[in-house]
Specification:
mainly alpha, YjbJ_sf, CsbD family protein
Length: 61
């Protein structure tokens, strides 16, 4: 995973946490759900990148 991808995924995760917190603070369930979805999406992207990296390492050998 490139550094840019890692930074982008972390930014998306943190943005999702902020949305979730804002939704909790204001009672906005839609905003809270969007924040959780953003976090899940960032986590999935990270997992896919990790699989790609593992596959690259496997085929280098």
């Amino acid at each position: 995973m490139s550094l840019g991808d890692k930074i982008g995924n972390k930014a998306e995760e943190l943005g999702g946490k902020a949305k979730e917190a804002a939704g909790n603070a204001t009672g906005d369930e839609q905003l809270r759900a969007e924040g959780q979805a953003d976090q899940a999406k960032a986590g999935l992207k990270g997992a896919v990148e990790n699989v790609k990296d593992a596959a690259k390492d496997l085929f280098k050998k």
